[in-house]
Design a protein that fits this description.
By secondary structure, the chain is of the alpha+beta class. The protein is built from 14 helices and six strands. The structure holds iron/sulfur cluster (SF4).
Length: 347
């Protein structure tokens, strides 16, 4: 492969086709000396892990409006941050976000460190985020490899070894391609190629600036890459969600700090177990509960079926919350609350 030609083609394509993203400095401005704000790059990368650009963008805009600098973010109350994060999922990331902002504000006087290694030392900053911030904000020649880049590499080099075992090889192949002159643009060009052209299901090879270098395209089986080891089915758990109302308020409880959705307000629930619970364990009040159907929710490591029960009544040790405030709940509880409050009850 002619690496220099591939780099030149992809960067030229990026100059003309870079996505316009609110955290991004356009290539023309970057060439004129404008630098990306590390805070915005870091925040966007944390938000974009496990979610899409269209979903993350309104959150990014709202966060940067409310907290324009990392010092502003470091001063946020934990509960306010958690509420603002609701809907992005993976709440451990929100806690890490705050820990990292406080470390940058407290230990680095609000200035992000500028090397991959020193970024990696910040709380909650993994290898991918450190590489992305180092490359995009500081133009370090870091190797920024996420699932999109793995897919592009697997196709460019027709890597037969299946994921996840092929990860080190895909990372090494991507590392050999990093452009030392424009590393930030290179990282973003690869991201954009993966997101808009070399798509997971149907790559748009007729629009690809590097198709002449692509081994899978030459063979005609590009859509079959990356090879994957068959996944084990996601296990299922069962539980009960209790929607206790009193007038126009709903009883919520604060979840323990450790564990799934830790520290968040949520509906009272039973434990989530491998078999459906047979008793009303975890109910917040001794009242007559009425069936309100079921909801399904998929977490990273398991799927959850929640039987939803509703009752009107009183309870101690709960946080009474107006119904119109429920939108800030993590989506699994919002779904269950809506199921109980908006659908006809099963008598
Ligand atoms: Fe991806 Fe097709 Fe380009 Fe190969 S030619 S990198 S498969 S879009």
């Amino acid at each position: 492969m002619n690496t220099a030609d591939l780099r030149a083609r992809l960067l030229a394509w990026y100059d003309d086709n870079a996505r316009d993203l609110p955290w991004r400095v356009r290539p023309r401005d970057h060439a004129a000396g404008v630098r990306a704000d590390p805070y915005r790059v870091w925040l966007s990368e944390v938000m974009l892990q496990q979610t899409t650009v269209p979903h993350a963008t309104p959150y990014f805009l709202s966060f940067t409006r409310r907290w324009p600098t990392v010092i502003d973010l470091a001063n946020v109350e934990d509960g306010d941050l958690m509420a603002a994060w609701a809907g992005l999922g993976y709440y451990a990331r929100a806690r890490n976000l705050l820990a990292c902002a406080r470390a940058v504000a407290g230990q680095h006087r609000g200035v992000f460190p500028d090397t991959e290694e020193s970024l990696r030392a910040l709380p909650g900053v993994g290898a991918y985020t450190a590489a992305a911030v180092a490359a995009i904000a500081f133009d370090r020649a870091a190797n920024v490899v996420d699932g999109n880049v793995e897919r592009v590499m697997s196709r460019l080099f027709a890597v037969e070894e299946p994921l996840p075992d092929s990860k080190p090889r895909l990372k090494a192949l991507a590392g050999d391609l990093v452009d030392g002159h424009r590393p930030g643009d290179w990282a973003q060009a690869l991201m954009d190629l993966g997101a808009t052209v070399c798509k997971p299901k149907s790559p748009l090879c007729d629009r690809c600036p590097v198709s002449m270098h692509c081994a899978a395209f030459a063979r005609g089986d590009q859509g079959t890459f990356p090879r994957k080891t068959k996944k084990a089915a996601r296990p299922r758990r069962y539980g009960i969600a209790y929607v206790l109302t009193h007038g126009d308020e709903v009883a919520l409880v604060r979840r323990p700090d450790k564990g799934l959705l830790g520290g968040m307000l949520g509906l009272p629930t039973s434990d989530w177990t491998v078999a459906p619970p047979t008793v009303l364990q975890g109910a917040p009040a001794d009242v007559v509960w009425r069936e309100a159907g079921e909801i399904e929710h998929v977490f990273t490591h398991f799927s959850l079926t929640l039987r939803v029960l509703w009752a009107e009544g009183e309870a101690a040790d709960v946080v009474w919350t107006p119904m119109k405030g429920l939108d800030a709940l993590p989506s699994v509880f919002l779904k269950a609350a809506r199921q109980a409050l908006l659908t006809p009850l099963l008598l």
